[in-house]
Amino acid sequence: MRKIWWKILCSALLIYTVAYGMISDVPALHTLHETIRNLFYHVPMWFTMIFLLLISMIYSIIFLKKKDLKYDLYASALAHVGCFFGVLGFVTGMLWGQYTWGSPLPQDPKIIGAAIAILIYFAYFILRSSVNDEEKKAHLSGAFNIFAFIMLLIFTGVYPRMVDSLHPGNGGNPGFNNYDRDARLSAVFYVAIPAWILLGLWISELKIRIDLLKKDNSI
Amino acid sequence: MEEVKNQGPKMADMLYQNGKIYVVVGVLVIILVGILGYLFFLDRKIGKIEKQKNK
């Protein structure tokens, strides 16, 4: 009944990413050295977060249109897993920053923006837990979820590009394409992105199924 | 260490190359396969509960 092929695909891509990403030939860059390999692990955490939060917002819109509480459950589970990946991106970025920028939390607009965006999602969870009426909770948090995703885009996509940032592709820094065009990096990077996104979807699917069972008092 | 190894007969020593990075790769793959296997296990377990519910 349930499709399993994409989970096997996810596993294969992830094993390739983790194994080949560690031993593949990478360009020799100043300051970064071998840490450029974090491109295959740290960066896809954020891509996965944004992807899951986008789907979460879409389910919130579907809920607000169709008024079926099932879609609200989908939106909340995806937001949970999305924020989990965001926290992973944050923590891995702190470790990477410590050894390349010299500080785990430099005054960087993208880091501050990401922190604010994650805090807005924490407000979403607090809002959800503070309303007892299921219908009201779904309506309020559904509307808030749309606002939260737009804020996420502004704080991580727009604002860092308007000021100087340490992150590539923002402010006065060279675009992502400088690294991206290197065939050695993209051979792993373009596999890493779908691999981690599929993992995020897989975990979200499990959470949704558990939440549905809980709702029916089956577990 | 390296010299001593080079004096002996040539054996399959892939895991000793490149500063033994392949050992780390092996560890990572084992952990990853373990985590993915656990996800598959959870997937099946949830599937079973879903089946029970539908009965």
Would you mind describing this structure in some detail?
The complex is a heterodimer of chains A (219) and B (55). With 219 residues, chain A is an all-alpha fold. Chain A is 75% helix and 0% strand. With 55 residues, chain B is an all-alpha fold. Chain B has helices spanning 2-7, 21-54. The A-B interface holds A 2, 7, 10-11, 14-15, 18-19, 22-23, 202-203, 206, 209-210, 213, 216, 218-219 and B 18, 21-22, 24-25, 28-29, 32-33, 36, 39-40, 42-43, 46-47, 49-50, 52-53.
SSE order and pairing:
The complex is a heterodimer of chains A (219) and B (55).
Chain A: H1 5-23, H2 42-66, H3 69-100, H4 109-130, H5 134-162, H6 177-180, H7 183-215
Helix pairs in contact in A: 1-7, 2-3, 2-5, 2-7, 3-4, 3-5, 3-7, 4-5
Chain B: H1 2-7, H2 21-54
Task: Give a nutshell description of this structure.
With 219 residues, chain A is mainly alpha-helical. Helices cover 75% and strands 0% of the residues of chain A.
